[in-house]
Amino acid sequence: MTRHTVQVATLGFPRIGPKRELKTALEAYWAGKTDAEALLSAAAQLRSLTWARQRDLGADVVPSNDFSLYDHVLDLTAMVGAVPPAYGWRGDRVDLATYFAMARGSRGDGQACAHGHAHASGEGTPAMEMTKWFDTNYHYLAPEFTADQVFRLGSTKALDEYLEARALGIETRPVLLGPVSYLLLGKTRGEPFDVLSLLPRLLPIYAEVLRSLARAGATWVQMDEPCLVTDLSDEAKAAYDHAYRVLTDVTPPIKLMLTTYFGGLGDNLEAVLRLPVHGLHIDLIRAPEQLAQVASAARVDQVLSLGVIDGRNVWKADLNAVLDKVEPLVAAGRRVVIAPSSSLLHAPIDLERETGLDPEIKDWLAFAVQKVAELATLARALNEGRGAVKAALDASTASVASRRTSPRINDPKVQARAADADPALALRNSCFEIRRQVQRGRLNLPAYPTTTIGSFPQTAGIRKARADHGRGVIDDAAYARLLRDETARAIKWQEALGLDVLVHGEFERNDMVQYFGEHLSGFVFTKAAWVQSYGSRCVRPPILYGDVARPRPMTVEWWRYAQGLTDRPVKGMLTGPVTILNWSFVRDDQPRSTTCRQIAFAIRDEVVDLETAGAAVIQIDEAALREGLPLRRADWDDYLEWAVESFRITASGVRDETQIHTHMCYSEFNDIIQAIGAMDADVISIETSRSRMELLDAFSDYRYPAEIGPGVYDIHSPRVPTVEAMTALLKAAARKLPQDRLWVNPDCGLKTRAWPETEAALANMVTAARLMRAGE
Ligand code: GLN
Ligand code: ZN
């Protein structure tokens, strides 16, 4: 039997650059400090370094067209000329101005909200809508289609980048987001219609691009179809059938690597195996169990691309364990390519930039660069035998063993506590109605009580002081003094305005997850491990590597200081366990549910300490609860069950008279409303201003039992909402929900806003609440 040589492929590499060079270049260009030529040459420079790097690390198949100036879904929209009419594009190729208008709005002043989503504001055409890319923290620009949508070739980027690499002596495999996933990720405009009905019009553009690539010399194209790991209708399966029959038929011929990731093919497997594609990539990190089935069912002439290295996390792989799985396939004569499970877009770039990390922990980690090197080691072992890379394999085994047994990871006390299955831990003492009576007596709030979500403007002064403090330019005392002054000003100012439940302002927090990660054990922070969130925006998620404990109180002193300045209640302000979990790189050696439960106990201790210090109101933010939903419906219940239980563990250590708030800033609750109710918070604040209170229907249909603060102030925009606008929203809310359960608050935190508009908007908000109380 012929043994085929095993190749290493990467499916996509981070674009932002090891030092976030792309961010710098984009922001200079947007600010008008540099011209298009400078931007484009910086981008070309990054691409050439990235290609060369992957090749030098040992990748045989290097991708092109995985780079993007902003977003790869937007690139596809440009490629097929699906520019929404509002951007006034008539032309031939989509130019930079049109491209960035779609990304950021035509005035280019897209605003980020407290959780980092950009929203266009002000005059001009707003940006296209941004949504999360499957279950990652990357955001893409959702395509928008009309029933009479016309497609035409609007960009030759895929061809240009292929040729660019070729001119550098690097043969690449261009990447395209596949046509069916592209349509399924889109939204319709106007009368609702089935997006898949556009497929026949879309395919000719793909065929044209494939032909141009084939003529230029490309032999393979990577077609990403991540929707194949989601629940698909029969129509969608038929669309796949049609699309790939058409696209494998183009002349001159080109081979397609159908690429799936973020989950298993599950019940779509049969449909996928029918497709006449030349290769199939499967994710064996999220769905290791699919290997046997796919390997036995795929056609023998099909190349199997095995996603054996985690493209989305930061841990070193157990290389010998991977070899145990892949060797039998190779021995049996299968054509095998090994690859990361998904694009490496979601991993930080290079571990070697982390000079400050504890060496023991650093030895457990692998970023994008290290992952390609791991694949190269695996390929050598598969092609030449394990003996050829013995040292590397032994090192991998040693790292894996060290991570399993390190006392840094294992804290028996934490493990024992999280294993405590006493259901009472997740129950408040009394039911909501009883708690409500006690809390009313204690807080004595007016009808339509006013509050804010937590953060106040993080001014340039605060950010500078934090940076200076980090670099040792100002000492702890000076930094603390500045934060205390800001907090005191915020308290005085809220009192003067007449807000009912105050916040301390979160001036001491860099980020709502990072702050807690820095105070909990089991987390480590990096210096340069940036991951693209959208466009030029990057995040540096904490790495949760071990059992999570809270060595000492994290927020109590700030709360105590703030409460000492006023007689009105100041909310204790915490981030919930599910949000901390979903916004971190988390350990892969135990179920996420277990990790979440550990975080829940740690935050519970903080809740109890805040109560003991005297806090009457404590808010536990769960901004990321919804986005943690699994890709498959069948897995939702399980996730929601442990996520809600974790929240309840966090919230249930307090007495009836302590009022627990939660906050979630998004606008889809219909399908999870029962779980939201099961969280059993006393008050929930949500984002509603832009949906004009429509989303409250979910709460009223379900008869949500507790109190609700529907956001009346869109914090994504510097525009100051008028009193009338806010009373109109409150009246709409009062028609849907019992008036005595309504709170008045903004959609989310105000950290990205400036003071003048914040003051004006909150003054109007307090006036609106007063008018509602007066029944006007
Ligand atoms: N308390 C946080 C803040 O106000 C909540 C942020 C969020 O929901 N994303 O900034
Ligand atoms: Zn929010």
TrEMBL record:
A Pfam family this chain is assigned to: Meth_synt_1
Cobalamin-independent methionine synthase MetE C-terminal/archaeal domain sequence ranges: 449-770
Gene Ontology BP, a term: methylation
Keyword Acetylation (UniProt): no
Cross-referenced SUPFAM superfamilies: UROD/MetE-like
Chain positions recorded as L-homocysteine binding sites: I453, G454, S455, E506, D621
Active site location: H716
GO molecular function: 5-methyltetrahydropteroyltriglutamate-homocysteine S-methyltransferase activity; zinc ion binding
Cofactor, free-text remark: Binds 1 zinc ion per subunit.
Cofactor needs: Zn(2+)
Origin superkingdom: Bacteria
Binding site for L-methionine: I453, G454, S455, E506, D621
Annotated function: Catalyzes the transfer of a methyl group from 5-methyltetrahydrofolate to homocysteine resulting in methionine formation.
Protein known as: 5-methyltetrahydropteroyltriglutamate--homocysteine methyltransferase
